[in-house]
Amino acid sequence: MPDRVTRRLAADPAGFAAAGKLLREGGLVAFPTETVYGLGADARNGEAVAGIYEAKGRPRFNPLIIHTAHIDEAEKLAVFSPLAEQIAHKFWPGPLTLVLPKRANALISDLALAGLSSIAVRVPSSQTARSIIEASGRPIAAPSANRSGHVSPSIAEHVLDDLEGRIDAIVMGEAAEVGVESTILSLLDDRAVLLRPGGVTRTDLAVILGYEPDVMHEPDDESAPLAPGLLKSHYAPHARVRLNAETIEEGEAVLLFGAFRPKGLETAKLSINLSPRGDLKEAAAALFSALRMLDQSGASVIAVAPIPNFGLGEALRDRLERAAAPRN
Ligand code: TXA
Ligand code: MG
User: Are 174 and 165 in contact (CB under 8 A)?
Assistant: First the structure.
């Protein structure tokens, strides 16, 4: 890493078209939104999404916000209750993210959702952001465009300071007007819970809800570990997860990486290799669906062969450690 030339694109129709094309091809493109600059990737493309974590040096896989240019596109991804519908029409486009049940047929990579069955969606109001998303023709996963642990960028120069050489392009647009991230409101089971304060205030929300939403502070520090179980809907396999398995017990389901073959592998119930060629990006893209499949095998233990501790391997191991942690 730094391994590529970061193109500077103008915030004009030619720049939007170039950004859209790069995103469709699986590239990483930073662009302004009204809250902060985002680092976008095609949310359907697991490897592109894995690239976000790699570029940010993010040590763990958080679920990402999925951005669309219009409400009707967000409605294709999530199930909107009448209340969600009302809130969306009141605050979108704008600095509000809604956490809703994911539609079963929504084509979003498991990695972007960190394996959850809910989805965070947002329609930004920045015209630049919307033009780029529209030009891509894809839902766009976008966290803030900074290195993990750094502060969120509100101008293009902040992004370049952190990510020059690590991303394919940046659209050199306006300064972010709001400067802090969007408010995240969960409406699962129609109970309004504030997961992150932001551009839209609690009082704004109370006007529509008729009450102030419960607050559940989700640690937003990207380097701080998320207590297991805090995100209640976090994907947790039923099977017990056993890490660094060099020997397999009969009947276990096995998660492999690269060329390493644990002893006794032939007695496994099922095994899946995240990346036979040992590519961590490919492995990250495959992780959550592989866990799901291994869990569905009915095995009581998922044995995970050793995974490298560098690059994206750190995030993979972190997520697996979370899956292995005792739950309440
Ligand atoms: O203003 C913003 O929202 C910016 C711009 C770029 O749009 N984006 C942003 O994304 O702040 P990010 O990835 O830094 O924050 C995503 C937050 C995380 O705290 C994550 O845990 C939460 O959204 N989140 C995403 N999906 C979720 C879900 N299904 N349930 C609960 N929380 C979720
Ligand atoms: Mg951030």
Answer: no
Whether the CB of 35 sits within 6 Å of ligand 1? yes
Residue 41 shares a structural domain with residue 158: yes
Domain total for the chain? 2
Of 270, 218, 193, whose CA–CA distance to 239 is shortest? 270
Answer with the one of 159, 181, 203 that is the final residue of a domain. 181
Residue 34 lies in a domain: yes
Counting as low any pLDDT under 50, the low residues of the chain are 219-234, 328
Instruction: Tell me the residue range of the domain where 307 lies.
Output: 240-324
166 shares its domain with 298: no
Q: Whose CA is nearest to atom 13 of ligand 1?
A: 143
Substitution site in 56, 61, 64, 183 for ligand 1 pocket (most atoms within 8 Å of beta carbon): 64
Atom number of ligand 1 nearest to Cα 120: 26
pTM of the model: 0.86
Instruction: Give the whole-angstrom CA distance, residue 183 versus residue 213.
Output: 12
